[in-house]
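agent: user wants the structure for Acid ceramidase from Thrips palmi. delegating to structure tool.
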Amino acid sequence: MFYLAKKMEIWWLHFLLVVLMSSTMLADMGRQKGNIKAALNFSHMENIRPSNFTPFDHCETAVVPPSSLDIPEYIINLDLPPRERWRKLVQDKKEGIITLIENMKNNSDLLFGKSVFWMVDHVLPLLTKTLPKEYREELIGISEATGVGIGEITLFNVFYEFFSACTSIVAQSDSGVMFHGRNLDFGLFLGWDPLNHTWQTTSLLKPLVVQLRFVRGNNTVYRAVNYAGYTGVLTALKPKKFTLTIDERFRINGGYVGIIEWISGMRNQQWIGFLTRQVMEKCNSFTCAQKMLAKPSLVAPVYFILSGISSKEGCIITRGRNSFNIWPLGQKQKKQMGNWFLVQTNFDQWRDPPFYDDRRNPAIHCMDQLGNKDVPQSLVNVLSTRPVLNKLTTYTAVMSAEKDMLKVWIQSCPDPCWPW
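agent: tool returned. relaying tokens verbatim.
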């Protein structure tokens, strides 16, 4: 009876996800259009695009970022039981986490109706039970410390794998030192504020940006930049070893399919945020990280961007859920003159980016123009150039594993500025 009950639970969960992620969200398009319009307030395009908007007209120079000291650092002690590791951090950021999740809930209700968060409250707790034990325990601990339901905490931890739009750049200086920069953009379609020209969710995420130092036996294992309440790794540095960022890859066979397969019992796939945690903990070289990120089956497609400590140790790993392609430093992209850098946004390197979201070509143009004499400053300038910098950008980070350098700051994009 227990076996049959579990089989029925899996079947019912599978059915709910298929229905909610397809027919429920796509049916009744008349109502959907009205809800999307209400959520975004796009009744006039000037509400989202300032009248003096220009997509790209120049490269920024001599940008001076704010101090990283403004972003707090927390110790994540890997020797502690998983339920206790994140307690101090999430208790400090509890109000911000609750406000953010409520905002995401309200905007999802406007876009898709209340069925989506019904699924979060009733279905995702079942998903939590199937996650690897260590990470499941961490999520339970965060739920207990914040008072937020485990379904919503689970959503918070898988959301970034499917809904972020980012720019990552790996570059080698003229002296052979590797540097790595990134913008993390998040919040598209989640509450456009027409008065302030901002995304509500993006604004609420910025106070949740934290620096993390993962330690074991009082030794630093790696450093990372996270949103409070998120346990995976999106931006990280392993001192004297390598750096890593991830960018979302937009594919039809994406994360939704992977979630359904996972719940249906196909557990041979890896969650991106958990895989990157394992890579940062276990690997001690660029080569190890590259192999570990390229091989496993994944729940969702993604781009992994890596840099090491030796000359030319840089690459973009384009991952399908069961395939990979490695684009090494030295291989030029379209319109690229120098061979000392790589740029990755959210589209495959061998295809032209869409006209409505071309951050790649401005970034390439500016990297070529600014050159590799002072790569950290070039990265700061390029990542502050519109539309590489846009209304979705929450933070910018510039790193070097060789120098054990991680600088991060909260970003803003005053008008005129593209919304994504």
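agent: one observation worth passing along. The longest helix spans residues 2-21.
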